[in-house]
Amino acid sequence: MSVEDKLKQGPRDGISYPMQVVYCGNCSMPIEYCEYYPEYEKCKQWLEVNLPSEFEKVKIGDDNPVEEEKKRQKRGGKGMIKTKKKEDGPKQVYVSRAPRGKKKSVTVVTGLNSFDIDLKVAAKFFGTKFACGSSVTGDDEIVIQGDVKDDLFDVIPEKWPEIDEDLIEYLGDQKR
Amino acid sequence: MFKKFDEKDNVSSVLQLKSSVQKAIRVKLLESYPHLENFIDVVLPKKDSLRIIKCHDHIEIIVNSNGELLFFRQRDSQWMPTLKLFHKYPFFLPMHQVDKGAIRFVLSGANVMCPGLTSPGAKMTDVPTDTVVAIMAEGKEHALAIGKTALSSDDIAKVNKGIGIENCHYLNDGLWQMKPVK
Questions:
Q1: Alpha-carbon distance B52 to B70, whole Å?
Q2: DSSP assignment of A6-37, as one string?
Q3: Domain named SUI1: which ranges (chain A) (predicted)?
Q4: Out of A3, A27, A118, whose CB is closest to B172?
Q5: A74 Cβ contact partners less than 8 Å away, ≥ 6 residues apart
Q6: pLDDT of A69-81, one tens digit each?
Q7: CA-to-CA distance for A173 and A176, rounded, in angstroms?
Q8: Closest CA to B51 of B68, B64, B70, B66
Q9: Is any Cβ of chain A less than 8 angstroms from the Cβ of B3?
Q10: Tell me, what's the pLDDT at B6?
């Protein structure tokens, strides 16, 4: 395709829309732009694992990138893309019980956010599962009405396989 | 526009659109992007109920029933497609191509300067000022930003100084990072 053609408007023959664009799993951009991402190495690793064919193409494209980069002094500021810092805190779910009135209690679940779980969906799920009230009460907090902590240890790993039972910790009774 | 945009902080409300407003938007979109005509039913199905996300700084984003972000605008400006949408239908905007050196600046949110559009690696289509354009890059296949021309193509070539395209939405900015809204 010549350059003139590339900028032409209007749908092209022989291509069915919507087009599928492959995005990098690390930087979320189309693969061809990975090289402009500060964590290019991580992108390459991701490519190697997920799209080996694309990785080969990239490899052929740059033969001596490492040496070239060392020569140039790098400072932040000039056209540097900043990486969004992902919070890699300890991934852990905390379960605790808080009293509600004299003889009832509620269960507080925190830490689901670190697993990228939609809290609203999770709260709804708990509510239907335990047939009780369940709501999102804070940034990373779900309150389930009733004492369901024993069930939670089975239900959470079942619903979200990425959470192992060992990652759930029971904090005991806590004051509200 | 979306450099410091954050889904949590900047979204104020999500509204269901009335069907009359939906129709008006369709008409407006077709008016500004005539090339979309054969595909409008796929992009915005007639039966689909659209929603609008209102954000701070008078930004509005159209979302379809699946939660995909489709178009955005600030105040009463023209609707601009998000890059995710434009990557799927990469033909309905006029395109400007920047040279290789400009890519990393554009990707960190800078406006496109005229020299980046006039050098040998760059290409322009002939458009007036205030047109929504897709910013492509030398040697790359996909668009890397959506912008609005600050000068007409002729002026860019003539003046060759200062801002040529205002960068509105680029890869990895706040809007790009935004997850589908439920």
A1: 10
A2: HT--SPPTT-PSSPP--B-TTT-SBGGGGGGS
A3: 93-160
A4: A27
A5: A80
A6: 445 555 555 555 5
A7: 10
A8: B64
A9: no
A10: 78
- Output the pLDDT for position B176: 85
Q: Are B101 and A78 in contact (CB under 8 A)?
A: no
3-state SS class at A117: coil
- Give the pLDDT confidence score for residue A64 in this predicted structure: 47
Binning chain A into helix, strand and coil, the percentages to the nearest 5 are 40, 20, 45
**Distance between CA atoms of residues B137 and B133, nearest Å:** 13
Q: What residue type is assigned to position A120 of the chain?
A: K
Q: Is the entire prediction scored with pTM above 0.90?
A: no
**Residue B95 reports pLDDT greater than 60:** yes
**3-class DSSP state of B120:** coil
Contact check, Cβ <8 Å, A7/B87: no
> Rounded mean pLDDT of chain B?
86
B83 touches chain A (CB under 8 A): no
Which pLDDT score is estimated for A66? Answer: 46
Torsion of CA B164, B168, B169, B174, to 10 degrees: 140
**CA atoms of A71 and B86, how far apart (whole Å):** 38
Size of interface A-B (CB pairs under 8 A): 88
- What are the tens digits of pLDDT across the range A95-122? 888 888 888 989 988 888 888 788 888 8
Name chain A contacts of B123, Cβ cutoff 8 Å: 3-4, 6-7
CB < 8 Å to A9, chain B: 35, 91-95, 125
- Check A30 against B142: CB less than 8 A apart: yes
